Amino acid sequence: MNYPNFSSDCKSLLCKHLTKEIFEELKDKKSRYGYTLNRLIKSGLENPDSSIGVYVGDEESYEIFAPLLNPIIQEYHNFTNNHKSDMDPNHLDITNPDPNGEFILSTRIRVGRNLHCFPLGPNIAQRERLIVECMVSDALKSLDGELKGRYYPLLGMDKETQNRLIKDHFLFKEGDRFLESAGLNKEWPEGRGIFHNSNKTFLVWINEEDQLRIISMQKGGDIKEVFSRLSKAVKELEKSLKFAFSQRLGYITSCPTNLGTAMRASVHIKLPKLGKDMQKFQSITQKYDLQIRGVDGEHSQSKDYIYDISNRRRLGITEVEAVKQMTDGVQALIEAEKSL
Ligand code: ADP
Ligand code: ILO
User: Fold this and answer.
1) CATH number of the domain within which 232 lies
2) Domain termination residue (choose one: 22, 51, 77)
3) I need a labelling partner for 10 at 20 to 30 A (CA). Which of 78, 100, 336, 339 fits?
4) Tens digit of pLDDT for each residue in 206-242?
């Protein structure tokens, strides 16, 4: 493998941080599960419009390829060391930023998790993926009360049901080209699926970008209630599943942007006036370190001035702090919208 030919307009953190020296240092390294530099950077090379450009195949690769990954982690999270966790909803001092339901359509908080002792999705074998599906769907059977639900494998799900779940924002999309290049779509749809309770306020995606995406969501802006449900569910699942975690990087995920809390707390919010003044809009999101996504998730466009607003940073910040920061930012956006 030769040093890649990055185009001059490449903006990914991969092309910024993969110097010739680092490339030479890492090009022949391999993790115990067989992950290589070639595979680490494949998605970024095949998708030159990537913003990050790497997917990690196992926990050990975060150490082996640290000369490339650490600067990427540092730049994305502004932090590299010693994750702190706090998922105690009693520590979350917030109120609903939109009590009259004028702006916030829905709230969703998810965390990514992967099982200890397994390679991550980009490097998992077909059989191992099936074992993960079995272990996680079994663990989910023990949930009761509000969290009680059923697992629906993607294999065998009819297209109409699948498309409706995607359209209603409950299920992951199919055929993401970034994940495809990283090897995350291999043997699709086998081993993938969704668990949810009857009113779809608690959901778990199995074997998408991470082995678990644990999700709490509901209509409106009661962010604390959404967080409390998520916190309870994670605690329950930890009784039967051991998640990959390191003191330095927090919860281990296949994309370095998700390390640490692995949490993305978002609202879908309608902001027609701010949507016409992107400079003002972005000055507020930058101040609170928030990310603006389209209404159908990452790499989608906003429709009817509805935006997905979430915390950008996940490492070096606790879960409670991330949710608080998102809530404060959303409050500021609502005030700005009202003042226009
Ligand atoms: P993730 O959050 O898991 O990183 P995406 O950005 O692709 O991934 O979002 C996944 C799905 O969740 C998409 O359908 C998206 O529209 C939906 N979603 C995200 N935030 C909210 C929200 N606050 N309310 C309703 N749906 C949401
Ligand atoms: N690999 C894509 C997406 C990066 C961040 N999003 C995730 C983790 N889904 C890119 O480099 O733009």
Assistant:
1) 3.30.590.10
2) 77
3) 78
4) 999 999 999 999 999 999 999 999 999 999 999 999 9
